[in-house]
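Try it yourself: sequence plus zinc ion, in.
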Amino acid sequence: MNSQAALANMASEVQKRTFGSAATHIQRNPAYSELNSDDVSYFKSILGDNGVVQDEDRIAVANVDWMGKYRGASQLLLLPKNTTEVSKILSYCNTRRLAVVPQGGNTGLVGGSVPVYDEVIVSLAGMDKIISFDNVNGILTSEAGCVLENLSTFVENEGFIMPLDLGAKGSCQIGGNISTNAGGLRFIRYGSLHGNVLGLEVVLADGTILDMLTTLRKDNTGYDLKHLFIGSEGSLGVVTKISVLTPAKLPATNVAFLSCNDYTSCQKLLLAARRNLGEILSAFEFMDHHCIDLAMRHLEGVQNPLPASQYKFYVLIETTGSDESYDKTKLEAFLLRSMEDGLVSDGVIAQDISQASNFWRIREGISEASVKVGAVYKYDLSIPVEKLYDIVEEMRCRLGDNAEVLGYGHLGDGNLHLNILSSKYDDSTLAQIEPFVYEWTSSQRGSISAEHGLGLMKAEKIHYSKSPEAVQLMASIKKLLDPNSILNPYKVLPQSVL
Ligand SMILES: O=C(O)CC[C@@H](O)C(=O)O
Ligand SMILES: [Zn+2]
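Structure, out:
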């Protein structure tokens, strides 16, 4: 097969295997070169044989996302061990016009971390060293490929915690977390990575190493450029080192698992929790009963904390503070009062770590359980809390028996995860969901990507949440930093503006 025919074949294969409206009409950009044997030799000369992976099985793993939904056709996986090697890779790819996908733990949900066509995959997995920890100020500096859970364990041994926690912590990498501006379960208490990341080292598309790796809390010297890279999904540069502010670890954590009879009660409970638990409130997560049913069906070893009856909604509340008995008494009093006020129908406070882990396993495991069913359409929306559940109900009406619709997420942050489970991916189901879900979110002035990014899935949908002027400005920034558009192509921004 000649190379043109091979590419055409690859394109149609990618379209067949990659599901989602965004992917189906994007053509491979002909401006990109095709990889040749000289390129491979060059990469071997800088990375050694072990840093250049051509083994089909290993590349196959890196070509597909963890849901098995987005699949590229890359033939090359590179494993740099330091920033200089990343710089040499990008400088070469930029000159050669080879497109690149930076890859962290590949736990994303929007097809942002896998190739679309034959992009070279640059994995940060080999850059996983902790560089320093300032245990007076709680400032961690590390390479970007460190797995979040390893960093959590490290800082916890020092008496601190990571400001970020999420279900994928065992595989996701801090560089990927920062590149997607991951939100997660501690957002309500510690806020966004825009606030917690102090410094970054980033390699630009032409290989320039941009040293912004400060550990200062305050620094108003000019534009704060790191923010451009937090949440830009590897489309403006590759994050190679990070410094993060880690909050002190507090000794008392309590977790309650509650049920509510209706969504209005969940909202009122959130307000009551903010008022009554105040600064010790560290998580407020909600799930509808479809989520609990799914978790019980598909997660091994979990137990329903409230098995007596089926309730409509469940809420997980966590408090973290400095006084175990004071905090527990406060949470118990809050729970009792909420029951008297009719906001909570039933509830239980974890009596030990294993009960607390079971509560969290249910909440964190919903995403994992959702991909065991067949096909899952995932939407990650920011919507004003009072309207947040309306879209779940609208979707149920639209889809009827064709699908199971789940609503859960970080209620305390106004972030809904709308998951639609179906037996298989098909265009007719998709047509019932999109563009309605985006139009509806836009009509509420919500965001079509609260915390997962746009990736490939929503690159062409950005206009539902951003004005044409804002998108144009983003395109200008992309062209300035990556004029040959080699970094993570087809993602984040629509092709039409680039
Ligand atoms: O899979 C999803 O839709 C959500 C994943 C994650 O953000 C969560 O909060 O569990
Ligand atoms: Zn989430």
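One thing you can check immediately is this: Residues 3-126 form a domain with the Uridine Diphospho-n-acetylenolpyruvylglucosamine Reductase; domain 2 fold (CATH 3.30.43.10).
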